């Protein structure tokens, strides 16, 4: 019985490690592609928008991932697979709604944020194009 629990733990740890590795490699590829596509000036503008995007991502997630993990593990331990699935589905709906809402907030506040953060006023608003 102990070896079964240990193998589940090792399998779960391995899957988390692979997911983390894929996430990091994807972030690296994204940065390389954006640098080549946008050039130095465009990538600099993108760099100005990333802190705002990070803040909104934190707000959209709202601490849900740890709560999801806790409740899914709790329901699976009690063999309540339907409740575990319901937790995942409901939390995904909430996160998708919040993600869309904060994307709209970013889109409509981009010109104002650009005027606040930039001394070089341009006729176009590249910060509105980058986050969307």
UniProtKB/TrEMBL annotation:
Keyword Membrane in record: yes
Gene Ontology cellular component list: plasma membrane
Transmembrane residue ranges: 12-30, 50-73, 94-116
InterPro entries, per the entry: Poly_Biosynth_Transport, Polysacc_synth
Subcellular locations according to the entry: Cell membrane
Keywords carried by this UniProt record: Cell membrane, Membrane, Transmembrane, Transmembrane helix
Topology class, membrane: Multi-pass membrane protein
Metal-binding is among the record's keywords: no
Endpoints of the signal sequence: none
Protein name: O-antigen transporter homolog
């Amino acid at each position: 019985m102990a070896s079964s629990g240990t193998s589940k733990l090792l399998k779960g740890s391995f899957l988390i490690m692979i997911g983390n590795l894929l996430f990091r490699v994807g972030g690296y590829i994204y940065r390389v592609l954006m640098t080549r596509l946008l050039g130095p000036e465009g990538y600099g503008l993108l760099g100005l928008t990333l802190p705002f995007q990070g803040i909104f991502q934190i707000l959209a997630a709202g601490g849900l991932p740890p709560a999801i993990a806790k409740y899914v593990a709790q329901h699976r331990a009690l063999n309540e697979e339907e409740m575990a699935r319901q937790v995942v589905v409901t939390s995904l709906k909430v996160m998708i709604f919040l993600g869309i809402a904060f994307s709209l907030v970013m889109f409509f506040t981009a010109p104002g944020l650009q005027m606040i953060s930039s001394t070089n006023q341009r006729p176009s608003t590249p910060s509105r194009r980058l986050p969307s």
